[in-house]
């Protein structure tokens, strides 16, 4: 084993202590609503970066800047940032009205006793199309409240079904922050990661749906939920979804989605042509924090790697987790721990990416498997923690409509995240993975050329 430097991991420790400590203080000590999300995460990362800069005094500051520059300028980081921006423009262009239309269409044609199952299925589809679990929960939870009030189904069951479906799409969507971060961080094609994930997510979704149907058919319900709907605006989402599955370049897919969405919303009169660019800008601006997190984390990780922190962490992991299966479990627990500490699955993946990349090479784990594990386990933990944005947004949406429900009332009905965890463990320990780690030949060639030029 190469000798590592445990002290080089101090910036990560500083970030976790500050963010988790202040989050707990704000949320539970001071009673601030959405306490974790009132903390400027960019500022906390800047403090962590400052700590990293003060380490290794033998290295001149100019050299540290050069190291950070190489980390930020890595092809995967640049690609990740550009995809974040394009996805933000897409969401800003097409809006989110079509999500409600899908729900109301299905509720109008399917018998009332299947309405909770409809909520789950609609949430799955909407979150895959939109690429955001929080956005899906924001849109569909009010419908879940209406379904509960009209039919008599338990409100926690309805809300838990929406949250489960939202995490299904968050895990699989081609324009989800988590998918973008995991795939670009591991140098994996999105369609490869989708296929790997789908094999894990589909069994969990089917078992969840069956359980919801069993609970629903045993309930005495009545009433219906009716509302207007318009499905034309769904076309851009379908273009992105189908294009991603077919393996078309993600930038081409997003540009087609933006173009078709622009034509539809303007032709329908949903958005004035003069406002369209403004909406695009707003969508892109919504990705600012995620983009800055990617930039700062890549800079911090570059310094940590230079100072031997990742070698020390990897040596510790190898002592605990043995073999390829153990390495896969270690990856899952690593990103899960990051998610528990940050309450943000995208940030957790961005932080775990460089460590997981080293682990993939050490344990001979394929890139697609690594990306899938990072995304899946982060969604498992994010989907159940009581202080996550998904849970807090769902509770807030209910409260705004005059209905009180707590996180601990909803958690027993979060069937999908729990089944996703079981499915993930089954695929790690029971299903063989014959494809090992694939070297990044392009990156290796670039490194050889750089060494040759320096020589």
Automatic annotation (TrEMBL):
<keyword id="KW-1003">Cell membrane</keyword>
<feature type="transmembrane region" description="Helical">
    <location>
        <begin position="7"/>
        <end position="29"/>
    </location>
</feature>
<dbReference type="GO" id="GO:0015297">
    <property type="term" value="F:antiporter activity"/>
</dbReference>
<feature type="transmembrane region" description="Helical">
    <location>
        <begin position="101"/>
        <end position="128"/>
    </location>
</feature>
<feature type="transmembrane region" description="Helical">
    <location>
        <begin position="76"/>
        <end position="95"/>
    </location>
</feature>
<protein>
    <submittedName>
        <fullName>Na+/H+ antiporter NhaC family protein</fullName>
    </submittedName>
</protein>
<keyword id="KW-1133">Transmembrane helix</keyword>
<feature type="transmembrane region" description="Helical">
    <location>
        <begin position="200"/>
        <end position="222"/>
    </location>
</feature>
<dbReference type="Pfam" id="PF03553">
    <property type="entry name" value="Na_H_antiporter"/>
</dbReference>
<feature type="transmembrane region" description="Helical">
    <location>
        <begin position="35"/>
        <end position="55"/>
    </location>
</feature>
<feature type="transmembrane region" description="Helical">
    <location>
        <begin position="413"/>
        <end position="431"/>
    </location>
</feature>
<feature type="domain" description="Na+/H+ antiporter NhaC-like C-terminal">
    <location>
        <begin position="248"/>
        <end position="420"/>
    </location>
</feature>
<comment type="similarity">
    <text>Belongs to the NhaC Na(+)/H(+) (TC 2.A.35) antiporter family.</text>
</comment>
<dbReference type="InterPro" id="IPR018461">
    <property type="entry name" value="Na/H_Antiport_NhaC-like_C"/>
</dbReference>
<feature type="transmembrane region" description="Helical">
    <location>
        <begin position="284"/>
        <end position="304"/>
    </location>
</feature>
<feature type="domain" description="Na+/H+ antiporter NhaC-like C-terminal">
    <location>
        <begin position="43"/>
        <end position="215"/>
    </location>
</feature>
<keyword id="KW-0050">Antiport</keyword>
<dbReference type="GO" id="GO:0005886">
    <property type="term" value="C:plasma membrane"/>
</dbReference>
<keyword id="KW-0812">Transmembrane</keyword>
<feature type="transmembrane region" description="Helical">
    <location>
        <begin position="234"/>
        <end position="264"/>
    </location>
</feature>
<feature type="transmembrane region" description="Helical">
    <location>
        <begin position="140"/>
        <end position="163"/>
    </location>
</feature>
<dbReference type="InterPro" id="IPR052180">
    <property type="entry name" value="NhaC_Na-H+_Antiporter"/>
</dbReference>
<keyword id="KW-0472">Membrane</keyword>
<keyword id="KW-0813">Transport</keyword>
